[in-house]
Amino acid sequence: KDWNRFAGHLATVELHVPLEGRKRFRGIALGADAETARLRLEDGREVSLPRGNIRRAKLVLTDDLIAATAAPRKDH
Predict the structure, then answer these.
(1) What is the pLDDT of residues 16-62, one digit of tens each?
(2) Residue 31: enclosing H or E segment and its boundaries?
(3) CA separation (Å) from 21 to 8, 40, 64, 66, 70?
């Protein structure tokens, strides 16, 4: 569910087995279903990554991510 929660944010993904000749991908998370996670790469292409092949997936810390996850401010 984190793939869908953080859709629109920058992520890196490392695979167990190469896909399209590569193991590492970086791009904007587009969401996921039970089978695949989707990324929009920096060149604009979209890839579907089999979830069972994902070794590691991490969000990249950006100002947008910080703002999206910050607790609401409490005014006194």
Answers:
(1) 999 989 999 999 999 999 999 999 999 999 999 999 999 999 988 77
(2) strand 22-32
(3) 25, 17, 31, 33, 37
Q: Which residues contact 59 (CB under 8 A, 6 or more apart)?
A: 6, 9, 10, 11, 29, 65
For the whole model, what pTM was predicted? 0.80
CB atoms inside a 10 Å sphere around CB 58: 10
Q: Is the dihedral of CA 51, 55, 60, 66 positive or negative?
A: positive
Closest CA to 19 of 36, 42, 5, 43: 36
Question: What span, in angstroms and rounded, lies between the C-alpha atoms of 52 and 49?
Answer: 9
